[in-house]
Please model this.
Amino acid sequence: MASGFSRAQVEAVAALANLELNDAEIELFARQLGDILEYATQVQGIDTTGVPPTASVVTRHSADRVDAVAASLDRADALANAPDASGQAGLFKVPRVIG
Amino acid sequence: MTVVGTIKDIRDDVRSGSRKATDICGQVFDQIRAYDATLHAFNTVVEERALAQAAAVDRHPQRATLPLAGVPVALKDNLCTRGVRTTASSKILEQFVPPFDATVVRHLEAAGAVIVGKTNCDEFAMGSSTENSAFGVTRNPWALNRIPGGSSGGSAVAVAAGMAPLALGSDTGGSIRQPAAHCGIVGLKPTYGRVSRYGLLAFASSLDQIGPLTRTVEDAAIALSVIAGVDAADATSAPEQVPDYPAQLNGNTRPLTIGVPRALVDQGVDREVSAAFTAALEQLRDSGAKLVDVTLAYASAAIPVYYLVATAEASSNLARYDGVRYGYRAAAAARSAQSGQTMHDDLRAMYGRTRAEGFGAEVKRRIMLGTYVLSAGYYDAYYLKAQQVRTLIRRDYERAFEHADVVAMPTSPTPAFKLGERMSDPLQMYLGDVFTVSANLAGLPAISVPCGLTAANLPIGLQLTGRMFDEATLLSAAHAYERRTEWWKRHPTL
Model:
């Protein structure tokens, strides 16, 4: 995968990740991600026939909590860190999406 | 260098009334004022808040009997503190003031601790040198031209330089143990689930764990007893009982068996680190421990497995930083009328530009790698495969623990490297995590204790790894080693 990681591939992944990249970053990441993935291909040589995947090491879950109404974060506190919000309406604001 | 002493010294002195919490707090801030302009351990200090907390300990006799009465604590800047800026050393959270405390912060304050500030780290804990911070590098107090390790570099430096006897860090692939090793102090990563992650800004949720950085193993045991335990706010926190760790430090009467993965530690390790490790094994043997060879056959695959799993989880966790609910938002870009773009494209552009301007290079690199390995067509070859090898790594340890109580390795294959040395080569940076990442993949507790100094006076760490939820044995083994050595008494000359 080393030199095979193209600019187009980098741009496609960046779009999936909602990440705007400049030309220099596209070039740099094409090279570096290629190097890292080439190194990572060594896992593909390991025989894992019949081996289950580990997504989490948790074996014993703590008890489920009671599904009851309880106090949650105050609305003003929840909005306080937003770059754009309406405290009065209790809304986060984003750039207009409907004409 | 003025040092306020260990957690145990402070706690005992405050309890007996021989020292005041406010005086200790004042000394700590004197130390920060004297050295932090050079070292940059802290992103934020909260002196007034700290003095008020210390005064409350002095004023109320019942607070002076608490387990961390008057103990100054530095918190890694990815642990949420209500009303105190929490940045994860990222521009995207530069102005973020959490509306809640992390569970560990509540535990510390309930135990009488005094929060002194928030420490610098690699952005979102992604790195091994603390160079990936939006707010500048942190310097190693043993050699100012060298990295302190990372990602909890500021926490390690705060403890090593006497700015706090206790710091909390987070460890996803070695981020507590490696900086502890490079700064000549103790760093403990507890079992996954031992400590609640509620309020820790998530990097890789199946690997992240919060733990203490201290001067002594006993102090680590005291701190763990305070922060450990099940938490309704973290479904992965473990219901297992929390033992009285300090009381069990000397409770181990039978000789311990220490497993050494020879094939792994005999290659690629710096000569001086290797010599210190060999000497540490001899001292463990002299203390009555039995050494046995163990095989961690898949450990050499731990780094690729780690970087596939961790980046996949990171790409998902960091999707939340989009300039809407909190954090930085990029200014709107002008849409060209003839491009055919819609208003919806404006929103997408806001997300993309916010993240472009808000994240640093290493975070972008990991988001890209993680997004790629999770994407259609590559999932089975990378992510699923990595999770299967993760199972093999866990089984390696299970077999090792059939013969051994703890497994010993160096914490890092080299001493602290020079600032800038590995910044242009991320893969080289990743390879330094060879001995630490497998404990996270397997969920095991592991500790780094000082075990030597190089000829150039750079600290070296010994790592011990224990069974799931058996921190008691792990800590008693580390304590027994530490008590036979003088390394933990050494301080950097500032």
